Amino acid sequence: MADLYQGPLQSEFDPAPAAIALDEKLRQAYFWIVNSAIISPHYDIEYNLTPPQSFIVGDSKRRLTLPSAQSYSSYVLLPLLTFATRRKCLFVGGPGRGKTASAILMGVLAGYPVKEVRRAMQHGHPQMTIADLLGNPLPADLVGAQRMEDIRIAWRNWLGMRVKIIDEYNRIPTRTQSALLTVMGDNYAEVLNHVFECPDSAWYLTANDDQGGGTYQVIEALRDRIDVIVQALAFNPRFLGELLVRIEEGLRPEEVVPKDIVFTEAEIDQMNADILKIELPPPLRRRLEFFTSQFELSEAAGAQFEYMTKDTARLAAIDWTQLVAADNGRDRLKDLGCQTLNGLSVRNLMTLIIYAKSLAYFRGNTSVELEDLRQILPFVLNDKLTPDLDAPFFALPQNAAFRSDSISWLRHLFDLSNAEFERLGLDHDDPVQQLDLEFSAGLDGLTESEVRTRIGRIERLVGEWCKGRKLYGHIYDDLLKLKYLHQRYTNYLHWLQLQR
């Protein structure tokens, strides 16, 4: 039968080509952008299959590494992962570095015409009002309405789009920033008691620096809603020939995006769902827990054990210099927590996990690897984990560059945490994790004697740890976990006694 349909009729009866996998489509989008649209030869997200070739360069003895596996440009990859996960990305860099053009490309990938993306882009300026940002009540309704509910609102079109772009967001007045915060954080806009529900969207904001400067200082809550920061690095003049071709041929990359890499709304939703299914293996999660636990402890900040945190000191507006002077029990060069002014929030950790999953998905893997976490962590925690530049670590000559290069500092911080984790042998001997796994099996069926035995084990472990040991962040969090387990068993023991 197949032979009967050979010849002119063949095309009509050929099966439709198989749909391309979404992760492969995402990779194709990356390679088209990095090779044909955005001139970014900075492959700063490095992977290696074998030890890479490296060279020491210049008087500063900096290391140039030639990766031995597929590596990526953060300036292209991070916005693309933001697109896939529907998160919020901030482009920072000087004027003319292509920040706005990159954001427009993301809108085109979502299927919007270039003109619609440009018109929907919000441009920050000092006179921007809430009405400019969200919409206006209709004038006729303002005159004739008897009730607030009768006033209709002409909402701005950009509120309903799947890609939202705010250009120079640090030029928006403070009051208008608060309205923007509601849209970014809670996904709705409100004018005169009328509410517009926004769809899940990828957000792209631009600024000339990441310090919150501009016409108006960016409010802290708005800065905290930004998930990842990517820097537009300097243009390499060795690629001037490509610019010349674009000028002579009148090419604009956003106007020639191949249809094959444009995503439908359903594909974006499915891609996001697939990313969430990527596994974060328990051993890797444990390393992330250990890293996170380094930074919140501040012994001098609280009298009660639970309140010995940097956040307690921040809320009380305690002078940081006085707090550091009072906290003199630890090795301030060895303790990683002494390098920062704050700890990490729940939102920071959730964002980090989602981006690590998205990077693993982009690379075609079903689970997150340690290197995925190591490469993505600096871009997520940039501007979230604030360095204490007066700490002894930054005073060392070999660490001077970390004062300005926060990406390299955060990656180095993660490396130091992993080295300490391995030195302590926590991959093989983690008594708190063993107790936690035992508790996670459930309490049903435990006898009073078994509960008392477990409580005794917890008390002995706490006693051992408190004998002449200096308190570091990871020990502090482990002790709080042990107190939690102790309390759960204590409550269950009381319940058993009441059942007699």
Automatic annotation (TrEMBL):
Any one GO MF annotation of this record: ATP hydrolysis activity
InterPro entries xref list: ATPase_AAA-3, CbbQ/NirQ/NorQ/GpvN, ChlI/MoxR_AAA_lid, P-loop_NTPase
SUPFAM superfamilies (alphabetical): P-loop containing nucleoside triphosphate hydrolases
Domain ChlI/MoxR AAA lid: 347-387
Domain ATPase AAA-3: 136-226
Organism: Thalassolituus pacificus
Name of the protein described by the UniProt record: AAA family ATPase
Superkingdom of the organism of origin: Bacteria
Pfam assignment, any one: AAA_3
